[in-house]
Design goal:
single chain, tRNAsynth_Ia_anticodon-bd, protein biosynthesis, Isoleucyl-tRNA Synthetase, domain 2, Isoleucine--tRNA ligase, 38% helix, 26 helices, 932 residues, Isoleucyl-tRNA Synthetase, Domain 1, 17% strand, 10-stranded mixed sheet, alpha/beta, Rossmann fold, 4 domains, zinc
Length: 932
């Protein structure tokens, strides 16, 4: 007979270990394209629209990106944020129909096509305009399609098949109709005013097309000899001006002074070597600025003959500093409230064609506005001595001419922030040219209406209100004309006899009908003037305007051809773009809509920051710190980018780079593992297991309370459009509340209890709710992963988490008192865990189940849980309660659990070994195994 002991039985097969096909590795770069194909195959977008009929619409009107080049990380940020907000609104019960769009006209595309011409040695001006426009259209169409596919790869849901574009024929017709509305209501006029002009691109530019860079400007101090003044001692003295734009001297027609400024009449008695001044010169300079000027001009000994207020200069007349060289006219001295003593000499030379203040002062006093500069930045014949010279190369010639006239006091250089074209990166000039403007303060009162609309708009963040409000309050009339070829023309005829634009709705209707059928190209076809003017007018009597409209007007009018024509409500619920669009798309959309509809085109405006590298630097190829979304998707997948966006406070500038992406991948791994554990622990779950809320243990009811809090948080974000902090809360819920607490506690019941035990069924009831809630709440952000986690449990060929709404959370789940109780329980549990960690580090135990701590609880905590519940909550094999007096400090004593380790649940209990059937099991496990 063999007396050898029997081999201990392996009970692993009796434990309910998690089981799921949902893999631990996301492998998103491979899985996401397959998911996109599935959504396309099943017609997910079409199903959503069909099922949403009759719901309250939610419209986020898409600010159109420019169809020019691959997407960059800023595009990804923008479209992902839009997509999350749209998806969340849809799942909150709305019909969120999103129409993506593109801005397709304008200078950047022309510039690219011209670059191709230059590379081939072709002359753009020699190409027929319709051929050139066709090449621009083809260029934009190519990049529109490239960007569309890249946006789709990001997981952005929308009506990609029926997107909008400003170059669509119906869009061009609608833009022309919007221009016509301003023509007919009298707000559109042609006027001569200084605008920012790009000599390189030969067109006026909007403020939104300008960026500021450091620029080295030549400077000069110039002398204007006083010919006439009320005080005899001023006649023959020289007023000294200072300018950073010497090229504007030929356009000078006045000098401005400040009425309250103290000016010194200076007699020069000594000069430094090389000075352009001479002993005996009499100069007028602002007293506070005299020391600085004396140093720059090389003045040595000098005396101040007297000090006078600027008001004494009223009526004085000076000579142009180039008198005798074709500039034989008087220069009046005029009071200007913009003159300060911050820099210069306290006198400002006035060239009415080259500055806003200059122009306004000139108009006030009826000064002539000479056209001294051509479209390409060269001087015209109205700048004698400099004709044909480029303004940015003119300073040396102007220095020499003034030196010859004895009117140059000093020269220098200044590095300062100067406006540049955002496309060519070249400096711009202020230049008065005839342009088309929309009046801000006429009978239509666009400024006042816009400011009123701003007051009624919801801004996220709130600071946006003041930003756009201050811009609208201070802005000049809107210059909407551009001297280019690729865009929608301003379809206006001007009477050659009166100079007035022809206001005739019949003409506008004919133009718009032609544009809808043929596109804006119809304006450039032979015989267009006669065609649109009709048989009752002679085309020879009218000028056909060939300027195109500012692309900001085009994109600002997109609401007119995207919202009502597609059955979408106006105004839109939300406009969402980068914070720079307060001066761009938000601004132009507001002015355009207020001018034609009297109201803003939006109810709310949300802005996000810019994307910087990990060190907070602007991205640039030269620094090698560019993060391309295409590369991120190849390495990590789109869901990591989407998580990065929503884990950030998008109202601020965001940072991204290799380390930040690694961190996001780790956060994603935790979320994915939460979903995986849920799925595994729900293996085989059916509705028959469900436990009613009233019968659930407190711990399960606490989890449901937390879900009610998160549900309220998410629904508030949907209503306010403010998602800051929502994703971090969801992640912390998964990582801290679930994985490190609830799951940790309930693993024993889920793995080792009998299948029909109330505790296990209750836990699985809550896990079922958790799976449904987390899949739905993560769906707007982790669009691919949430779908994968949903289908892993509910594999339906036509099913999708994105077809569902957020789960309904009963009001009865909210239980603040229970939440407060469990907050205290977690504090005490933390103290127990700390003691166990010390024992583990000391080598006294290897696992918490080897412990049986003693809890010295103050009286107010004594009834929180029973000893058995404390053991379960602290994940120890036993716990002893030692009640203390009220107010006593909490204390935990470590003790080793007595007994043997159960071979199935690993708890250490004295009862292990008492069962003859299963001597290595505790009594709970013995019963479960027998009932299996």
């Amino acid at each position: 007979m063999n007396d050898a002991p029997a081999e201990p039985r392996d009970y692993r097969g009796t434990v309910f270990l998690p089981n799921t096909p949902f893999p631990m590795r996301g492998d998103l770069p491979k899985r996401e394209p397959a998911m996109l194909e599935r959504w396309q195959r099943m017609g997910l977008w079409e199903k959503l629209r069909q099922r949403s009929k009759g719901r309250t619409p939610f419209v986020l009107h898409d600010g159109p990106p420019y169809a020019n080049g691959n997407l960059h990380i800023g595009h990804a940020l923008n479209k992902i944020l839009k997509d999350v907000i749209n998806r969340a609104a849809q799942m909150a019960g709305h019909d969120a129909n999103y129409i993506p769009g593109w801005d397709c006209h304008g200078l950047p595309i022309e510039w690219k096509v011209e670059e191709e011409y230059r590379a081939k040695g072709r002359d753009k001006d020699a190409v027929p305009v319709l051929d050139f426009r066709a090449e621009c259209r083809a260029y934009a169409a190519h990049w529109l399609d490239v960007q569309r596919q890249e946006f789709i790869r990001l997981g952005v849901a929308g009506d990609w098949a029926d997107r909008y574009a400003t170059m669509d024929l119906p869009s061009e017709a609608a833009i022309a109709r919007e221009i016509g509305k301003f023509l007919m209501n009298g707000s559109l006029y042609r006027g001569l005013r200084p605008v920012m002009w790009s000599p390189v691109e030969k067109t006026a530019l909007a403020e939104a097309e300008i960026e500021y860079h450091d620029h080295v400007s030549p400077t000069l101090h110039g002398r204007f000899r006083i010919l006439k003044a009320k005080a005899a001692d001023l006649v023959g003295a020289d007023v000294v001006i200072w300018t950073t734009t010497p090229w504007t001297i030929p356009g000078n027609r006045a000098v401005a002074y400040g009425e309250e400024i103290d000016y010194a009449l200076v007699h020069v008695e000594g000069v430094a070597e090389g000075s352009l001044l001479a002993i005996g010169d009499r100069l007028l300079v602002a007293l506070p600025l005299l020391p600085g000027f004396a140093k720059e001009a090389g003045i040595g000994a000098h005396s101040i003959k007297r000090v006078l207020k600027g008001a004494e200069l009223a009526g004085a007349i000076a000579a142009h500093p180039l008198r005798g060289q074709g500039y034989e006219f008087d220069v009046p001295l005029l009071a200007g409230d913009f003159v300060t003593t911050d820099a210069g000499t306290g006198f400002v030379h006035i060239a009415p064609g080259h500055g806003e203040d200059d122009f306004n002062l000139g108009r006030l006093h009826g000064l002539p506005i000479p056209e001294t500069v051509n479209d390409d930045g060269t001087f015209t014949i109205h700048a004698p001595g400099f004709t044909g010279l480029h303004v940015f190369k003119a300073h040396a010639a102007i220095y020499e001419a003034m030196k010859a006239a004895g009117t140059l006091a000093a020269t220098g250089k200044l590095t300062h922030s100067y406006p540049h074209s955002w496309r060519s990166k070249k400096p711009v000039i202020f230049r008065a040219t005839p342009q088309w403007f929309i009046a801000m303060d006429d009978e239509n009162a666009i400024r006042a209406k816009a400011l009123d609309a701003i007051a009624k708009t919801h801004f996220v963040p709130e600071a946006g209100r003041n930003r756009i409000g201050s811009m609208v309050a201070a802005r000049p009339d809107w210059c909407i004309s551009r001297q280019r070829a690729w865009g929608v023309p301003i379809p206006i005829f001007v009477s050659k006899q009166s100079g007035e634009p022809l206001r005739d709705q019949a003409i506008i209707d004919r133009v718009c009908a032609a544009f809808a059928a043929e596109g804006a190209d119809a304006w450039y076809k032979p015989g267009a003037a006669a065609r649109f003017l009709g048989p009752d007018r002679n085309a020879a009597d009218y000028e056909q305007v060939m300027d195109i409209v500012d692309v900001w007007f085009e994109s600002g009018s997109t609401h007119a051809f995207v919202l009502p024509p597609r059955g979408l409500p106006f105004p839109a619920d939300l406009y969402l773009e980068g914070s720079d669009q307060h001066r761009g798309w938000f601004h132009s959309s507001l002015l355009e809509s207020v001018g034609t509809n009297g109201v803003a085109p939006f109810k709310a405006v949300l802005t996000h920051g810019f994307v910087l590298d990990e060190q907070g630097r602007k991205m640039s190829k030269s620094l090698g710190n560019v993060t391309a979304p295409q590369e991120v998707m190849k390495q990590y997948g789109a869901d990591i980018l989407r998580l990065w966006v929503m884990n950030s406070d998008t109202a601020l500038d965001l940072r991204i780079g290799p380390e930040i992406l690694k961190q996001q991948a780790e956060l994603y791994r935790r979320i994915r593992n939460t979903l995986r554990w849920l799925l595994g622990s729900l293996d085989g779950f059916t509705d028959a297991e469900t436990v009613a809320h009233a019968e659930l243990p407190e711990l399960e009811r606490w989890v449901l309370h937390r879900l009610s809090e998160l549900d309220a948080r998410i629904r508030t974000a949907v209503e306010t459009h403010d998602w800051a902090g929502v994703l971090p809360e969801l992640h912390n819920f998964c990582n801290i509340d679930l994985s490190a607490f609830y799951f940790d506690i309930r693993k024993d019941a889920l793995y080792c209890d009998h299948a029909g035990s109330l505790r296990r069924r209750a836990a699985r009831t809550v896990l079922d709710v958790l799976h449904r809630c987390l899949c739905a709440w993560f769906a707007p952000v982790l669009a691919f992963t949430a779908e994968e986690a949903w289908l892993a449990r509910f594999p339906d060929e036509e099913g999708s988490i994105h077809l569902l709404d957020f789960p309904f959370i009963p009001e009865g789940w909210r239980d603040p008192e229970l939440a407060a109780k469990w907050a205290r329980i977690r504090e005490i549990r933390g103290a127990v865990t700390g003691v166990l960690e010390e024992a583990r580090r000391a080598g006294t135990i290897g696992a918490s189940l080897q412990a049986a701590p003693v809890l010295h609880l103050p009286a107010e905590d004594a009834l929180l849980l029973s000893a058995a519940e404390w053991a379960e909550t602290a994940i120890v094999s036993a716990a002893t309660l030692a009640p203390e007096a009220a107010g006593a400090p909490l204390a935990v004593d470590f003790a080793v659990a007595p007994g043997e380790k159960c071979a199935r649940c690993w708890r250490v209990l004295p009862e292990v070994g008492t069962s003859p059937r299963h001597p290595t099991l505790c009594l709970r496990c013995d019963d479960v195994v027998e009932r299996a």
